[in-house]
Design brief:
It is globular and about 65 Å long. It is 42% helix and 18% strand. Helix 6 runs parallel beside helix 7, helix 7 runs antiparallel to helix 8 and helix 9 packs across helix 10. It has eleven helices and ten strands. It has three domains: 109 residues, Cobalt-precorrin-4 Transmethylase, domain 1, CATH 3.40.1010; 105 residues, 2-Layer Sandwich (Methyltransferase, Cobalt-precorrin-4 Transmethylase, Domain 2), CATH 3.30.950; 40 residues, no CATH class. The longest helix is centred in the N-terminal third of the chain and has 13 residues.
């Protein structure tokens, strides 16, 4: 009989942010597959957990995934954990999860902390629909292209960023999103947690005057439903809709009706984009 792979969420900072079920599973499984065993060992020592550890960090992930699948097929139960949060969500773990599903192994989620959800909950922005981007591309040219494509997005945007790129990234956001409201959270749930709210230009100014350290989560309010959209912005939105599979005619019709623009003028303008 095959074993079970448990996807176990662990604290993103504060070690108290772990469920009773997660602790029980970590104590009961045959082995814990960790992103970094040294990091997970701190959590285990804190809660008096003593189970065998294997690492799937970095380049080892594909190789270790096969080794772990072998354990699961032999009947062992495995808890998959990342350094913080939920494995596979902008974290390693996805390779093993995919292989387990392909191998017909039971995969069970053990829910808990996720930085994207925590950030959304304190943002004050709409949570009915949101777009999670993970980490933006490190190269500025590619990052600006992605942000430009999202500049007309009406859903709330959530993304992660590393400390050495946060200033440059927020500067790009300010250039492309203008005065859009946003929330930046640093060191979430940790001792030096900091939340900065305001327009993107305001956040950029405050960020320049604060200590740059730790991981960052950025939440940006979706574009409003304002009327009188500029013809250039409308043409850009048509381009985005076409990339999603709509024909030019269908995209023009939708945007023209929504913003009260001339369908012919908008169609002609879209041809020049």
């Amino acid at each position: 009989m095959k074993g079970t792979l448990y996807i176990v969420s662990t604290p993103i900072g504060n070690l108290e942010d772990i469920t009773l079920r997660a602790l029980r599973i970590l104590k009961e499984v045959d082995v814990i597959a960790a992103e970094d065993t040294r990091h997970t060992l701190k959590l285990m020592n804190h809660y008096g957990i003593s189970r065998p550890l294997i690492s799937y960090w970095g380049e080892k992930e594909k190789l270790k995934a096969e080794e772990t699948i072998g354990r699961l097929e032999s009947g062992q139960s495995v808890a998959l954990v990342s350094d913080a949060g939920t494995p596979g969500i902008s974290d390693p773990g996805g390779v093993l999860i995919k292989r387990a599903i392909e191998a017909g192994i039971q995969v069970v989620p053990v829910p808990g902390p996720a930085a994207v959800i925590s950030a959304l909950s304190l943002s004050g922005f709409s949570t009915e629909e949101f777009v999670f981007l993970g980490f933006l591309p490190p190269r500025q040219s590619r990052r600006k292209k992605v942000l430009k494509e999202l500049s007309l997005e009406r859903r709330t945007l959530v993304m992660y960023e590393a400390p050495h790129r946060i200033l440059e990234t927020v500067r790009d956001m300010s250039d492309l999103f203008g005065e859009r409201r946003a929330v930046l959270i640093r060191e979430m749930t940790k001792l030096y947690e900091e939340v900065i709210r305001g327009s993107l230009p305001e956040i950029l100014v405050r960020l320049k005057g604060s200590k740059i350290a730790g991981e960052y989560v950025v939440v940006i309010e979706g574009r409003g439903e304002e009327k009188g959209l500029h013809i250039n912005d409308a043409a850009a939105e048509i381009k985005i809709l076409m990339k999603k599979g709509l024909s030019r005619k269908e995209a023009v019709k939708r945007v023209a009706e929504e913003y009260g623009l001339s369908r012919k003028e908008l169609y002609d303008r879209s041809l020049t984009e």
